[in-house]
Amino acid sequence: MSGPWVEKYRPQSLDDIVGQEHIINRLKKYVGEESMPNLMFTGPAGVGKTTTALALVKSILGEYWRQNFLELNASDARGIDTVRNDIKNFCRLKPVGAPFRIIFLDEVDNMTKDAQHALRREMEMYTKTASFILSCNYSSKIIDPIQSRCAIFRFAPIKGEDVINRLRYICSEENFDYDEKGLETIVYYSEGDMRKAVNILQATASEGEHITEDSVYDVVSKSKPQDVSDMITKALTGDFMGSRKLLHETMVLQGTSGEDMVSQIYQEVSRRVIDGKMDPEFYIDIIEAIANCDFRIREGSNPRIQLEALLTKFL
Amino acid sequence: MLWTDKYRPKNLKEILGNNKEKKIIETWVENWKNGNPQQPLLLVGPPGIGKTTFAQAIANEFSEYIELNASDKRSQDVIKSTIGESSSSRSLFGDEYKLIIMDEVDGIHGTNDRGGVRAIGEIIKTSKHPLILIANDFYSKRLQSIKPKCQVIKMGKIRGPTINKMLKNIAKEEGVEYDKEALKELSKKANGDIRSAINTFQAIADTSHELTMEDVETVTTKDDRSTIIDGVMATLKSKNPKHVKDALRVDEEPTLVMEYIAENVAREYTNKNELKKAYENLSNADLYFGRARNTRNYGYWKYATDFMGIGVSSSKKETYKKFTPIKSPTVFTLMGRNRGKRNLRDGIAEKMSQKMHISNTVAISMFPYLEIMFQNDELAWEISDFLSLEKDEIKRFRKKVIPKAVIKKMEKQKEEMRIEERDRRAEELQNQIFAGIPTEEIVEEEPPRDEVELISEEPQAEEEPEELMAEEIIEEEVEEKPKEKTNKQASLFDF
Fold first, then answer.
1. pTM higher than 0.80
2. Of B256, B287, B293, B353, which to mutate for an interface test with A (greatest number of A Cβ within 10 Å)?
3. CB burial of residue B66 (10 Å; 0-12, 13-18, 19+)
């Protein structure tokens, strides 16, 4: 009971967090101190950046953590002005029942450079009352002045072993049957992303009593839009307009992000070459194009235009 | 009354500007009057530059005229029955000519107008009366067969100073006090469209009788799509770098121009290698637009513009000999048409991000799993309850409604758990109060009102995580300590 397992089984204390031991050990030193440096957590999705931040905040601020904690998401369609206002209003007040206040700012790498410069000024202005924890996927997208003001912690993808242990724990709490092969399949598909692993687990569990390799595979393939395969087939047969239309629909209607599209296209063509349905030489040319597209999107280009260009390579 | 009608020039002499065209038309009228039949006149040019005004001024030179415009149904029959008769036969009495004016000829299209173009061709051939055709788009497909049979007069945009002169006249007549610079700016902003200038002027000054710079800055004149179309057209149709570069000096967001080129290049370049090359250039253009945005170094724009302009234009070996109309990006229409769906999606994502410490993007990436989970009735209820989803939001993940029996069962379960939890909490609190802070202090410092509020809040606390209830008490306890009080006051002086 209580909805999504990703939230239900989010570790609440630093000790419960799996797979980031050396980071956790260093962070624990800040507990009980009168101040904390600004921190930056960087690493791929689902490796525990937010979880660690929340757990750290709770153990530092203790009982009064809610009063002294502000969580903001930098990527959502709110201007930097809103973010600044929220920060300003929050820092106006002195910490209550705690040595200082903490602001957690998620997905900072999605802020424009201008906004980051503005953020930097906020960070300087309130050093006395508040510490910042910034979180991002790519620290390279963060301007140097911010990086130099933070202690940077790099989160690695969670090791398979740690993921599987956590899945076992959840299964036993929920009284769910599983076989090892089933859990291993989840680990394979989740690529060190704990959120993804737990989501696959719950989705599989929602379908039946037992978690097996087949039932996991069934969920994984269901969760991938069929459109990507059709889109590639259309492009391969020369129907660029049709293929582009599917791309637009997937991105606009499903809301699939550019990065997700790239990784799904990658998985689709890899499957084809392994099944012997695509010429390896052609495959490698395509991989070059996909890699290029991936790089450009991460660098901040318009994903739709880049993906359209990628589709022409299949023609 | 509309100023555009009130101040419309009544005859050729009153018309400002277009002196060259005026001469041609005057000779044309003169020749007809001398019994010397002429080819029809075709007036072509962008909207609001006085084509209709010209036609009506010419009409004043003739005793009778018939006017048809876009709002009329133009099937062959309508054209023939209204003007077909009069166009081929002349009055029995006298040598009076009837002038026939057909407005927006390039607007003929669709099934209602089937044969409309052919009918006009017919009329041109047989007409014994003077005929004036008016059209917007010189390159329109529908004009192709008509153009050779007409004397074409291409009319351009009206120059700013000319518009300014006209507006000054109107201001004098209407008693409008105006800032000279503001009037100039308004004339410039109209971008050659005198009708739009007059309309805007009237909108601002009709009641207030004044025009300030501020007024002009706040109104936006109609947007000028023709230029962006010209830019795209040149990129796709031309291979001349200078021509392309000139045409792309468009007063628009350059990334929008890129979207237009991307949309249309796929329709124009049917050779797949050329399309690939074109898209490589677009991808590069996009890359540098992105870099410019991220580094705030807008010097990169010039490279981007060359990629999308000269790059795309030179990706073709030869110009395609076909007519492909320029379309606005379909992805925008797609977005517009599905705004409802997207709002629904974003609404759910927003709820998830509030409850689950994730961004909207991450929330949306979880949707495929939620779709699977929602097929399970009980889990569907649990998650919807956890996220407080509305009916239509639940429908996003499952087609069937959650069976009533399941809802009942789950609600009962939840209620039982709530009561259990509440009792546990109550016991815990009891222990805390007895063990911790002296009860006197609470009575002393806390007005009873708050205590009542606290109790009354208890049943509502079921929605929130249970800790909240406890915390509110803690918060109050904190504030009751004298030390904290001074702290609070100090913070008041801080700001």
1. no
2. B287
3. middle
Whole-angstrom distance, CA of residue A72 vs CA of residue A106: 6
Strands (E), A108-198: 130-136, 151-154, 177-178
Mutate to test the interface with A, among B298, B365, B369 (most CBs of A within 10 A): B369
H/E stretch holding B237: helix B225-237
Residue B68's beta-bridge partner residues?
B102
Give B398-405's long-range contacts (Cβ < 8 A, gap of 24+): B398/B371, B398/B374, B402/B377, B403/B377
The 10s digit of each residue's pLDDT in A266-278 is: 989 998 999 999 9
Q: What is the ipTM of this complex?
A: 0.86
CA distance A134 to A121: 14
Average pLDDT of the residues in A224-233: 87
The sign one gets for the Cα dihedral A288, A294, A299, A302 is positive
pLDDT at position A281 is: 95
Quote the tokens at residue B110.
Answer: 């669709």
With bands split at pLDDT 50, 70 and 90, how would you rate the model's confidence at B84?
A: low
Q: Are B151 and B21 in contact (CB under 8 A)?
A: no
More confidently predicted of B85 and B356: B356
The better pLDDT of the pair A295, B457 is held by A295
Nearest chain A alpha carbon to B273: A315
Cβ pair A296:B360 closer than 8 A: no
d(CA B196, CA B205): 14
Torsion of CA B246, B252, B253, B259, to 10 degrees: -80
SS3 content of chain B, % helix, strand, coil (to 5): 65, 5, 30
DSSP string of B406-445?
HHHHHHHHHHHHHHHHHHHHHHHHHHHHHHSS-HHHHHHH
Helix or strand holding residue A70 (H, E): strand A69-73
Higher pLDDT, B79 or B448: B79
* Crossing angle between the packed helical segments B377-387 and B339-356, to the nearest 10 degrees: 80
Over range A200-219, report the average pLDDT. Answer: 90
Q: Do A112 and B413 touch (CB under 8 A)?
A: no
Instruction: Give per-residue pLDDT as tens, A44-87.
Output: 999 999 999 999 999 998 888 888 999 888 766 456 777 788 88
B201 pLDDT more than 90: no
**How large is the greatest C-alpha to C-alpha distance in chain B, in angstroms?**
118
Residues of A in contact with B283 (CB under 8 A): 293, 296, 301, 305-306, 309
CB A164 within 8 A of CB A184: yes
- DSSP one-letter code for B296: T
Contact A315, A240 (CB under 8 A): yes
Q: What is the H or E stretch that residue A8 is in?
A: helix A5-8
Predicted confidence at residue A200, as pLDDT, reads 95
Confidence of residue B469 (pLDDT cuts 50, 70, 90): very low
Q: How far apart are CA A280 and CA A64, in angstroms?
A: 59
Inter-chain CB proximity A207 and B372 less than 8 Å: yes
Residue located via tokens 């809802």 = B407
Residue showing tokens 């739709």:
A304
Q: pLDDT tens-digit profile of A127-141? A: 888 899 999 988 888
Helix, strand, coil percentages in chain A from 3-state DSSP, rounded to 5: 60, 10, 30
Q: Which of B118-132, B175-189, B210-224 has the lowest mean pLDDT?
A: B210-224
The residues with which B64 forms a beta bridge, in sequence order, are B98
